[in-house]
Amino acid sequence: MNDLGSSKHVVILGGGFAGLFAARALRGAPCTVTLVDSSTQHVFQPLLYQCATGILSEGQISAPLRRVLRGHRNLHCLTAHAYDVDVPGRRLMCKRPGGTQMAIPYDYLILACGVEQSYFGHDEFALHAPGMKTLADALTIRRRVFGAFEMAESAAEPAEQRRWLTFALVGAGPTGVELAGQIRELATKTLRKEYRRFAPKDARVLLFDGGKTPLASFSPRLCRNATDSLRDLGVELHMGSRVTNVDETGVMVTSNGGAPEHYDAGTVLWTAGVAAPPVADQLAKATGAERDRGGHIMVGDDLTIAGHPEISVVGDIMGLRDLPGLAEVAMQSGWYSGHRIKRELAGQPPAKPFRYLDLGSAAYISRGKAVVEAGPVKISGMPGWVIWLFIHIAFLTGYRNRVGAILTWWVALTRDIRRERAFPTRKVGLVTDIYNPPGEVTQGR
Is there a contact between 307 and 287 (Cβ–Cβ < 8 Å)? Predict the structure, then answer.
């Protein structure tokens, strides 16, 4: 695998923010770098909900890693799915498309695989309530959201029509809030004149969460502002509610210790909870690494696992000082790990301990309304929305994507047009996963 003549080989698992910035930091380092990703696409996850609701295309929020890193002569990308780590042998165990196995040797391993959707032990919910972590998830949600309005148009009974016009979202963090706001905007603005047998503005968006308020990670004042904005949009907030079952008819909910109640909903979307992917579980077991309650792998101040200085853990899967799962944490930790290895390979003094520079958090609620928090600075409403806009333009990968997003947002905001509304009409059933052996199938969503 070390085909560039270098004596050392660095393997980066994951092409998200952490993996991308680790790769960038290793440019020109005296080593070979292999970036392993199941799709070799860098996806701007904070804007997946805009892809799901027809504002941005999948191409505008993603970029081929090979293209982004084409100037890195010591790096090559590999499309593979990692499932285990041979720690004593220093090998990353992977599946190639088609299901055949391969082992990638490493001298240094940077685990930047991110996290997966968690259904809190009820993985059967995934069949009826897709999460939103990948491009495939966003396109699945797009099909379900726009498809629900089409089903309502042809519904024979009022009860069926009401069910299709009811959207239940589980989880009131940034993703749930942003998605809920966009569905209501879609119904009240973009689609308001397009249907004849019902009024799209009558669509109900139910947001369930076990906490006391949406966006609980923000300050109390911003939480109140977000709550008011969501209610003004027409989002129905069900705080202190725990979803106990999901099926094709809707959700079963228990609120404040009361009796279970069923809510009919044609579309259920899951935006609550994250879990470590299987490869991270295997690595933790193999190294004996400590983990926190959220499943994060605990690391030292140099972002390596205790007793294994050759293994760095960065991004969302990293456990250190209760740092949040934000893109900024991923970027900075990825850059630090790549830079630390580069210094070590060059024989320079060890890097200083990792320090996170908190640049704040932001969440989009609706057109002209967002919340932004950075230390003592707490901004909401139109000023927050403007700041949110500039932050996301700055961090989008690639000049083409930035320009495309600006033009698309301009059309969407000034003319209430969402051009990215295409979705397949064929229901996805049993489909082949590219990492399964031939003949093996996976239940699609």
Answer: yes
